[in-house]
Amino acid sequence: MPAGRSGESEIVKPRQTTLDRAVACQGIGLHSGAPATLTLRAAKPDSGIVFVRTDVDPLVATVAAVASNVVDTTLSTTLANAAGTRVATVEHVLATLNGLGIDNAVVEIDGPEVPIMDGSAEPFVALVNRAGIKTQASQRRPLEVRRSIEVRRGDKWARIEPAPAFAIDVTIDFEARAVARQRHELVLDPERFAREIARARTFGFADEVEHLRASGLARGGSLDNAVVVAGDRILNEDGLRYADEFVRHKVLDCLGDFYLAGAPILGRVAAFCTGHKLNHELIATMLADPTAWYRADPIDAPAHARPLVSAG
Ligand SMILES: [Zn+2]
């Protein structure tokens, strides 16, 4: 609750948030292997999350984090603007901003891919903690799901339905015995995100690594930034961070992909064996149907920007 408010009968509506100051981290891209510096900066109310490439012409550098900019969902989510400027592997930093309830931010990068860091969202959570979170004057404008939408591909499916808060229920089922079938359910709040989800790392299978590299993917991938599975074994010396780290990472990916709705979602997601492609299909299908969701328009002069007079 914002400090300094009084009046017991007052209904406090959630306000938008941004970062208190700029903070940066450095790493390499998981797929490109290219080094990159990522800087998180404050942004105006109602501006959402916007990526800015600092290594290209400023006229074409801005790529909004919205579903209509998704151009590739092979193993990670890649965005591009109308001029073709791309930003790859956006999902973990977006999951962090969604998970911690940050409405507005500029994410600057001096290269084509968000650094993978340790393969989880924990380094980005630490970055946001260093920056601090600032409450803004404008009310939050969540996207309210109004009716159920489902997408299917073979036996994989994902569904979103109305709910009073963002909730997610993900099940995965892999042949590899170290992963097998796992399920995780979460009603989103920042503490639970940081504790239960943020530390879960991306994962891959040892027998796929060569194929990925031949396809130009996972060039920056290593045991430092991914859990690698070989049948019933985990190749990482220190093992897992959570017994069900794999499904928790799927939840993390979903939080990133679903933030491409362009706003925090009030709705419940359930999914079986989902991935970036199906996540994007679900969001795009929902957004294409104006009867499936509602979002209030921005208010230019919000009432709470006026001097506060207690109603007693
Ligand atoms: Zn991921």
Task: Briefly summarize what is shown.
The chain has six helices and 20 strands. With 312 residues, the protein is α+β, with helices and mostly antiparallel strands. Helix 1 crosses helix 2 (122-131), helix 1 crosses helix 5 and helix 5 (245-258) runs parallel beside helix 6.
Sequence-ordered SSE layout with sheet pairings:
Elements: E1 15-19, E2 23-28, E3 35-41, E4 49-53, E5 62-64, E6 70-72, E7 78-80, E8 86-87, H1 91-99, E9 105-109, H2 122-131, E10 133-139, E11 143-145, E12 149-153, E13 156-162, E14 167-173, E15 181-187, H3 190-197, E16 203-205, H4 206-214, E17 227-230, E18 233-234, H5 245-258, E19 265-272, H6 276-288, E20 293-294
Parallel strand pairs: 4-9, 11-19, 14-19, 16-17
Antiparallel strand pairs: 1-10, 2-3, 3-9, 4-5, 6-7, 7-8, 11-20, 12-13, 13-19, 14-15, 17-18
Helix pairs in contact: 1-2, 1-5, 5-6
Bound molecules: zinc ion.
Descriptive account of the structure:
The structure is a single chain. Strand 17 (227-230) and strand 18 form a beta hairpin. The chain is an alpha+beta fold. Strands 11, 12, 13, 14, 15, 19 and 20 form a seven-stranded mixed beta sheet that branches. It has a single domain (15-296), classed as lpxc deacetylase, domain 2 (lpxc deacetylase, domain 1, 2-Layer Sandwich). The two termini are 18 Å apart. Helix 1 packs across helix 2 (122-131), helix 1 (91-99) crosses helix 5 (245-258) and helix 5 runs parallel beside helix 6. It has six helices and 20 strands. The site of zinc ion has 5 residues, from helix 1 and helix 5. Zinc ion binds at residues 91-92, 202, 249, 253.
